Amino acid sequence: MSPKPSTRERILQASLELFNAQGERSVTTNHIAAHLEISPGNLYYYFRNKQAIIAELFDRYEVAVDGFLQVPEGRAVTMDDKTVYLESLLSAMWDYRFLHRDLEHLLGGDEALAGRYRLFSARCLKNAQAIYQGFVDAGILRMGAKEIEALTLNAWIVATSWVRFLGTNGERDFDLVALRQGVYQLLALEFGYLADDVKGQVTMLAGSFLARPQVTVN
Fold first, then answer.
1. Three-class SS string for 59-110?
2. CA atoms within 13 Å, Cβ hemisphere of 57
3. Are 111 and 55 in contact (CB under 8 A)?
């Protein structure tokens, strides 16, 4: 039997659940306390305000992304790595979707968080560029340095904007299927740069992220 989570951990778990379900703007510390059936004062004992809760959740998101967005050590990247990267990204985007839903609002109201996010963003771009270079070195992608740089930036824009796109497109209560299509869009950015001998594998991988029939990469 696993140990009962601490009150602090329960606050974080409940906050994440409510932020994801209702949007961060709609949830107050009073809502979180009521959801947990604790007093607001008890919540404030662990977190001085909602921004402190958000900062802790962002820290967990940051650790999760940093954990998988790395070039493998001591070996070349493979198609299996591509699957791991995409599935890990999907998991992080889903688990912390509130961060992507209203990012400008979150950063605009918290200067410290905005500074942390800028460093995180720069680090992710650097690591993702190294990963794409790894796929080029492994013969999976065929592209030059400028194309790698552009692909990295475009992929980051899609990854960080897809949840917001779903919201502005009328899908505030989107599900995991809709989020999986966002991962497909990331793969679609690579279609024109694939080596011939991996196009079939990428077609199958892309199709696994779509609810609709699979597409063929020509």
1. HHHHHHHHHHCCCCCCCCCCHHHHHHHHHHHHHHHHHCHHHHHCHHHHHHCC
2. 27
3. no
Distance, in Å, from the CA atom of 37 to the CA atom of 26, rounded to the nearest integer, reads 18
Map tokens 């991988």 to a residue. 205
Could you give the 3-state DSSP secondary structure of residue 50?
helix
**27-54 residues labelled b (16+ CB within 10 A) or e (exposed):** bebeebbeebebeeeebeebbeebeebb
- pTM, whole model, 2 decimals? 0.88
Note the maximum CA span of the chain: 62
User: What three-state secondary structure class fits 29?
Assistant: helix
Q: What is the pLDDT of residues 160-189, one digit of tens each?
A: 998 888 877 766 667 888 888 888 999 999
**In angstroms, how far is the first alpha carbon of the chain from the final one?**
52
Instruction: Provide the 3-class DSSP secondary structure of residue 194.
Output: strand
Residues 6+ apart with CB under 8 A from 144: none
d(CA 201, CA 52): 44
Residue ranges in the chain modelled with pLDDT below 70: 1-2, 170-173, 211-218
Task: Delineate the domains of the chain, giving CATH numbers in brackets.
Answer: 1-48 (1.10.10.60), 51-208 (1.10.357.10)
